Amino acid sequence: MPVPDDDPPSEPSRRQVLRLASALVGTVTMTSLAGCGLKFEQHPVTTPAPPTADELARERTAVDADRLLALVDDVRRLRPDLAIVLGRVASQHEAHLAALRVPAATTTPQPRTPQTGSPTTSGPLLTRASAADVLARTERMAAESARRELPDVSGDLARLLAAIGASRDCHAAAVTDLARRTAAA
């Protein structure tokens, strides 16, 4: 009787090789198909709707308010004698920002390049002597920028922008008046 260890290793039969190959091909095919299902079940890509005129106007006016707020802080450092008026101006700019900013869940406006005449803080170098005048001039430009938006926006936003424009004009007048009075003293 032969001992199992003495048998030479037998090579797989052709039938065993074909079964193994068939199982391998089946496994690869099923894996590929399962992976393809993910590609076909994806949700279609949707592009967001372009921002409305109201959204764009809100964003441009809010950007101006941000810039004005930064400029007010710079002027406050140079002109502590105007601190009370500048504090009121800053709080009004913050209120304007709160009224202009729409929650992100509602809209995602794409800011446009600011219009010509839009206020910037990258103008002339501020000095104690020029700070109040630069702020007043920038407030007037921002007021005009807000008024330029009025024909293109809805009624509610037009009222808000008109009020913001008027407020900015008042800021310019108050800063100019106070600066002249403190310079004369």
Helix-strand blueprint:
Blueprint: H1 14-40, H2 53-78, H3 83-100, H4 131-148, H5 155-184
3D structure, described in words:
The structure is a single chain. The chain has 185 residues and is mainly alpha-helical. The protein has one domain: Ferritin, CATH 1.20.1260.10. The chain is built from five helices and no strands. The longest helix has 30 residues, at 155-184. It starts with 13 loop residues before the first helix and ends with a helix. The relative contact order is 0.13.
Short recap of the structure:
This protein has 185 residues and is mainly α. It has a single domain, classed as Up-down Bundle (Ferritin).
How far from one another are the termini? 127 Å
Secondary structure class reads mainly alpha
* CATH topology type: Ferritin
Secondary structure: number of strands:
0
Number of helices: 5
The rounded Rg comes to 35 Å
Strand content: under 5%
The number of domains is 1
Mean pLDDT: 82
CATH superfamily: Ferritin, core subunit, four-helix bundle
Poorly predicted runs of 5 or more residues: 104-121
The description of the largest β-sheet is: none
**Which class in CATH terms?**
Mainly Alpha
Question: What is the global morphology?
Answer: elongated
| Helix percent band | 55-70%
CATH architecture: Up-down Bundle
Order of helices and strands: HHHHH
